[in-house]
Predict the 3D structure of the following.
Amino acid sequence: MRALWLASWYPVQTDPFNGDFIQRHAASAATRGPITLLHVEKISGKRGKTITTTRKTGDLTEKITYFNSPDVSFRLWRSFHSQLKTFLFYHKMVKEYTREHGRPSFIHVHVCMHAGVYALWAKWRWKIPYVVTEHYSIYIPGNPGSFYSRPFLYRYINKLILREASGVHNVSGFLQDCIQQIVPLRNPTIIPNVVNTDLFRPQGVKEKPPAGWLFRFVHVSSFEVGKNVRGILEAFRLLAQRRTDWELILVGPADEDIRLYGSPISQHLQWTGAVPYEEVANHLQQADVLVLFSHFENQPCVISEAFCCGLPVVSSAVGGIPEVVLPENGLLVRAGDVQDLVQMLDQIMTTYDRYDRQRIGEEATAKHGYPVVASSFDRFYAAAFK
């Protein structure tokens, strides 16, 4: 079967981390055979020519079209114009693909809106079936900007895309259940996040700071409000009143406001800013525990990456996180409960010897490595198109 991937999110020049987990899924699937992935990216308020870039890495071919969208005040017109151009550019790219390779056996959509609109049309027009991978946390009730707060037309089309899909894949049972409260799914399947285990793997003995050993926590995120980094800093401020034999490495694009918020415990903090994927692996390997305290989540890739490095995790019990953070590899805390987080931070430092980092790494690698995830996609396709 010849698969064509259409991704609504994808790493681009203006945001190299957007949908990078989709890129890794594509790289894993391409280990089983050639994959072409298409993405259309709107650049608001810019003027200039439409540009299409092509990159080929092994059996993965990535084609991204950048187009300009007018920066106008009339929101409905701006949205309609953007969606129409997105659809037309997908149509152009799919026609080019078909001329070169023939019509695809099926389409694999990553995130319904807006690549799924084209896949839906292709099914009606050319009888090309499609499957969907959905990562979007908007389906979680209570999440700001959730599916339930979206305009009627958005909800109607989104549900239609999911209903017409031959199969729907999620990385967590939690998100899958949330979606099935909205629309029944065909062949619902759980396939975990994929991790580049050549980078994210246990490292023997971590380097210790020159002044002596300190217990090293690490937080990795986009530093969006939902990641609740302020709550993390508040918890560590309280932890500093109990004990001071620790440090916290904060990896991500922290702004001046959040850095100022952490100033009372600045002697315990290191801010790295945004770093390349390879450096994230190094920070996880050099740490003792990953800390997350999000208000809302699906199932963050960084948890899988931490496990592959043999790292225990302390996280809020939200979304699909309780499916993977278990007593043998970490601790869960109540979302938003700073005192509970302080207690668990202190506890994991005190009982750290009970965690077998080598075993955590081996079990995660067996679950999240490229070969096993690629095999899972093969089974997903076989079930959807039998």
